[in-house]
Amino acid sequence: MVINMMQKRAESMVLDAVASYFHHATDGLGPALETYQNVACGEKQGEKARQGFVYFNTVLANSAYVAGENFSVADITLYAGLVFAGFAKIAIPRSYHI
């Protein structure tokens, strides 16, 4: 139950937020594919992703893993979101535990 909940948080707070930021607030995949962009929405999603970083930084300050004592799909989802954030050029503070 905890793994599912934390996986959903990683997905909505980081991975999905970064994806929306990438597609709406950057050049994304180029004008041929990004035919509609809402920059204000994209910027808001970028802020949501940064808030997600803060949340997961707090979680990982006290635990090696996102959802308990073992590596799980929640960790994989957060990792995917963080890799995507790097690609989308959303800065993650070096002092963070994520």
From TrEMBL:
Domain GST C-terminal: 1-98
Pfam families from the UniProt entry: GST_C
Protein name (Swiss-Prot/TrEMBL): GST C-terminal domain-containing protein
